[in-house]
Design goal:
2% strand; 522 residues; Major facilitator superfamily (MFS) profile domain-containing protein; 4 domains; mainly alpha; Growth Hormone, Chain: A; two-stranded antiparallel sheet; 22 helices
């Protein structure tokens, strides 16, 4: 078993702060995503946005964003995310995590400028595609960068903060929308859009100092760069001997993995033990999307307004606060609980929330009580999602994939996830709209039923990875340990007859920078 306590002391504390600093800079990509979520949803209920980009509706005696336009807007945004997710596998494998982060920051800066200056629907759709492209890059590069640079005792805490950052800035975006939505000029939506500029600008400036991950260098046969990268990430106070040991083990496991599993081509995702890792990862991200979160975040304000909820913008702010509270709770859960129980109970809570407000909608349709119940249980859903699947889902994705295929695995996962999003987002207006299926709050029956299946799958197939190093997780997968035995597995440093220690011993001294050389440099 791994050491669950983690290192302590001044030198380790300074190192942890340094690691967290790099991770938070990379997390600027998540800031942009949070703001974009709030704006995309909130603009649908914004009078001036409807006036400028909507179509005339006789019944409403005004311009409205039609169901078809909503489908087009969300579909194009998600198409951009799918395209960038597909490209990120190649970019991450050949050019590194840092390159993908830079491109994500660049698109994040360009997107709001385009959307704030265009005056036609076609121009807005160009901006939405670029927005989706940047969001896809953010998801597929933040997770591997954080997973590969943080030590095991910090990895869970860092990765759960991804959803927390998104939730905080979704709330910020909702608050900005609340403050500007009644403006009669184009600044009603231009103002919120321009708030997206700051985060990518900070990252574009900081990218010069952000190092590439040591595991990327190790997987490309560049051990000297791997050691230098680890020293920069851990900082000058971190013991050189521990850096040497850590990187040697990374290189050794990479060599064993390549000897047993072969190359890092796309087809290798579906071969050997990587097939299992790919299937579990893809199903995990799909479970996350089909929880109903895409429906709530994409159409929350609109859904509240057609369901009879008073002050839908205010309710959106409240649900945003619930999301942040859930993300805060996730920090405690990830520290003291395993990944499996968090996700099992989270899916159960989300399913209960969806089924409850759907049942009340059937029992008392159109009533004030039903509207209040909807607001309350959507808030509970957002809290439970923020504390469980929203926060821990990225942790699982970062931990389950092998080093040589991490970029491609996460790329494939988000292709699947964004594709599920397209299905949900494009189909939702027709499920809940009065002119179509008119399910309204009864759509909760669909997502509640899916949640039951998620609970069952998670219990039987999702392995426990809490407090394990990425190399220990590699050993368990390559030794074909059953999912429900991961928690109690004792690490042997032996993979299918190959000794990790033997590989470490065969790492040539010329590939290492000695402690004395490092001290002389200082």
């Amino acid at each position: 078993m791994a050491d669950h306590t983690g290192p302590s002391g001044t030198m380790y504390t300074r190192s942890a702060k340094r690691v967290l600093g790099y991770c938070m800079l990379v997390g600027m990509l998540a800031v942009t995503q949070g703001l974009d979520i709030a704006q995309t949803s909130g603009f649908l209920a914004m009078p001036r946005f409807n006036q400028d980009f909507g179509r005339w509706n006789e019944a409403a005696q005004g311009h409205v964003i039609t169901a078809g336009q909503q489908t087009e807007m969300f579909g194009i945004l998600l198409a951009g995310a799918v395209v960038s997710s597909a490209a990120s596998g190649w970019v991450g494998t050949h050019w590194g995590r840092r390159t993908g982060i830079f491109v994500g920051a660049l698109t994040g800066f360009i997107n709001p400028i385009i959307q704030a200056t265009v005056t036609t629907w076609a121009g807005l759709m160009v901006g939405k595609f670029i927005s989706g492209f940047g969001i896809g890059l953010g998801q597929t590069f933040v997770i591997p960068y954080w997973a590969e640079t943080t030590p095991a005792h910090l990895r869970g805490l860092v990765l759960v903060s991804l959803q927390g950052i998104i939730n905080i800035f979704t709330l910020v975006g909702s608050c900005v929308n609340e403050g500007t939505h009644d403006l009669t000029t184009r600044w009603a939506y231009r103002g919120p859009l321009l708030t997206e500029l700051l985060a990518p600008l900070i990252l574009l400036v900081a990218i010069y100092w952000i190092p590439e991950t040591p595991r990327f260098y190790a997987s490309h046969g560049r051990p000297d760069d791997a050691f230098d990268s680890m020293r920069k990430i851990r900082g000058p106070t971190y013991p050189e001997e521990e850096i040497q040991d850590e990187v040697k083990e990374v290189i050794a496991m990479d060599r064993i993995e390549k000897e047993l599993e072969g190359s890092a081509r796309w087809i290798d995702l579906f071969r050997g033990t990587d097939l299992r890792r790919t299937v579990v990862s893809v199903i995990a991200i799909t479970c996350q999307e089909f929880s109903g979160i895409s429906f709530i975040t994409g159409y929350g304000t609109y859904f509240f307004s057609i369901s009879g909820v008073n002050n839908p913008f205010v309710i959106s702010v409240i649900t945003g606060i619930c999301g942040i509270a859930g993300s805060a709770a996730a920090f405690a859960l990830i520290k003291f609980c395993g990944r499996r129980p968090i996700l099992i109970y989270g899916a159960a809570a989300q399913g209960t929330s969806m089924l409850t407000f759907a049942i009340v909608a059937v029992a008392a349709p159109g009533s004030h009580a039903a509207a209040q119940c909807l607001a309350a249980f959507v808030s509970l859903f957002i809290f439970s999602y923020g504390a469980t699947w929203g926060a821990v889902g990225p942790v699982v994705l970062g931990e389950l994939s092998s080093t040589k295929l991490r970029s491609k695995t996460i790329s494939l996962c988000y292709i699947a996830g964004w594709s599920a999003d397209i299905l949900i987002i494009c189909g939702t207006p027709y499920l809940i709209g009065a002119d179509y299926a008119n399910l309204g709050a009864k759509v909760g029956f669909i997502y509640g039923g899916i949640a039951i299946l998620v609970v069952i799958w998670t219990f039987f197939f999702l392995p426990e990875t809490k407090d394990r190093t990425l190399e220990e997780i590699d050993e368990m997968f390559m030794n074909k340990v059953p999912a429900r035995q991961f928690k109690n597995y004792v690490i042997t440093k032996n993979v299918q007859g190959l000794s990790v220690q033997d590989q470490i011993d065969h790492i040539g001294e010329k590939a290492l920078v000695s402690v004395e050389t490092v001290e002389n440099r200082a």
